[in-house]
Amino acid sequence: MKRKNRNKENLEITYEDDWIIVAEKPSGLLTMSTGKSGEVTAYSMLTEYVRSTDCMTSGKHGNHTDRRLFIVHRLDRDTSGLLVFAKDHQTKLALQENWNETVLERKYIAILEGDIEDEDGWIETWNYENTKSMKVHCYPFKITDNPEKPPRKDWQYASSHCRKILTAAINENVYTMVEFELETGRKNQIRAHSQWIGHPVAGDRKYEAKTNPFGRLALHAKTLSFIHPWTGRTMRFTSKLPHIFWQLKESPGIH
Fold first, then answer.
1. What tens digit of pLDDT does each residue of 161-177 get?
2. Do residues 89 and 110 both lie within one domain?
3. Which helix (H) or strand (E) holds 64?
4. Which domain holds residue 86?
5. FRET partner for 210 with CA separation of 20 to 30 A, picked from 2, 88, 108, 144?
6. The model's pTM
7. Cα–Cα distances in Å, from 59 out to 1, 19, 47, 154?
């Protein structure tokens, strides 16, 4: 069963069946609550949707307050794109416990500051999150290093593939649109890797971006492909590029 359901926050349900919901989250919307009272999140909105759907199906009035959704993975507040939610705890566990084997493809579109010289390549680092600043720092990954044996217990191996799409200028500032494909899924991985190579994601002040041409973080979760935990089918979803990003594609190209 496929549905498309938009609301005022522009959260869109791309796919739904008896076990999962795949949704597109807009930039600026939290995946889940930070604990503040009354926060609107992708989780709260979809929970309300599922409960209201249950009411309509059963013909009863009021919310089914015991109905729950389960978050399978997250996107940062300012990152837009595809998210997966589970409708029961068993499905959540089935997806999360075998996430690296279940997920076949995770691609993001990012617009980075500056002109990237390399057309295609891998970024490999050790990542460490400072619990005070909540910022992820990268450290060199050596050829002799073993991804499964970090030099420090609080470091994590992080690997991203980066492919250049185009370079163009906006208001005399140069930007490069790239496609990131994740081999690992560490917190803030793309944002930290972009800073590590000297080209922060546009609009990402936390990771030292100097410009914000789109009024938001220029990062979008575009493609997600995974094996359905119960049907065994390969599920592949692609999200359209945010309209505002076309500003770069329509700008005079450099190369």
1. 999 999 999 988 999 99
2. no
3. none
4. 1-97
5. 108
6. 0.88
7. 20, 21, 18, 51
